[in-house]
Description:
The protein is mostly helical and 236 residues long.
Amino acid sequence: DAVLGPVLARAVIKKGRQLFLKLSGEFIDYNPKFQLYLQSKLPNPHYRPEIAAQCTIINFIVTPDGLEEQILARVVNVEKPELEQQKQELVRKQNEYKVILSQLEEGLLGTLSAADPTTILENLPLIEALEKTKATAKDITLQVQSAQATELEINHSRELYRVVAAEGSVLFFLVNQLCIVEHMYQYSLDSFLTFLDKAIERTALAEEIAERIGRLTSSIRLTIFRWVNRGLFEEH
């Protein structure tokens, strides 16, 4: 709903000591402690990129691609922790930049709407505010471009471990299919990830990344096999 746009964008306007949000053309008092939780009944909703940047989206439905991303983050966090931290920090900064730009736009529109049209060219505070907004927006745009370039480099390094993540995701959904054979064969994602972490910890180190990836893949495969195998009925 477009009405929630200012809320999601945190387009807060400060007048004196008070904070306001503009909803449906009206200014409403804003509390910094305000939090909004929305729940969808859709099984697999799709949100626009700008919505995803403004909100924290939690999807409780596990998909192969989603699980692969989760496992990739876990593997990289163990293998290259500084890389995963940089990735998370970049995402946080890019979201902050978008919020700041939105707030600047809202503040500028509010200032222009409150100015007297007959003296707008002589309104020095307004002109200074316009110049400041323009300079800030330009600076943020440069920072966003720099962050995007850094993100490409980080993603390239993370992608080296994509094979391991894909292997883990395939194994989980393969194991989940065992319930077709016997209803008692039920495996939780938490348990699976626990054994996945153990497999990563037990994997021998290697000088070459390619060799390390091969060892990780084999270790995860063997660990999950042993975990599942000891819980199978004798007839299977």
